[in-house]
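Question (not urgent): is this output format expected?
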Amino acid sequence: MTAPLPIGPSDPSFWAEKYQGNYRPPWDLGQAAPPLKGFLDRHPELRPGKTAVVGSGLGNDALLFAQRGFEVVGFDFVAAAIAAAHQAAVQADLPATFLQRDVFLLGEEFPQQFDYVVEHTCYCAIDPARRDDYVRSVHGILKPGGQFIGLFRCDAKTNGPPFGSDPEVLQRRFSGQAEGPFERLSFGLAPDSVAARQGKEYLGWFRKAA
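Got this back:
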């Protein structure tokens, strides 16, 4: 008898196991990512708009943007994560919406509907072979001129998830080629990562061509 193939990061059940019981997934900080908070503090000129948080997990980053007046929709693969994020929004009395969706299919349902897309721990969780698909998906749900704000894990880890990235390769994937779908506004080492992630997180800010 042939052994069943192991499930991987493209299967919702792989992630559902991470949210069983009261266990907090290891990638969850229990708070919004400090580099995202710092980014918003440094850019008060950003006008709140309709914002997609992809791979929203327990909702920490989505609620940060909701607190700042953004109209937030969080998307995640896992029903348990969506339920927990919704409960957190209710407890915080914040008007964030959370929907269970496949990030690669968002463009079909939400074409050019968002002013911002926010990324943290989604890109590093997907199969690296699908990273170009990911870029196309977030590009597809942004309005012309919309902005992508991403906090990326950059190291040499290959046996993920999480999967590491090379900063130069990552930049080229988004905007380094002539046909790149985004204009790079800024990209660099995150200045305010938590201690365990210092030197491994890069913050990217990109804009979709109008």
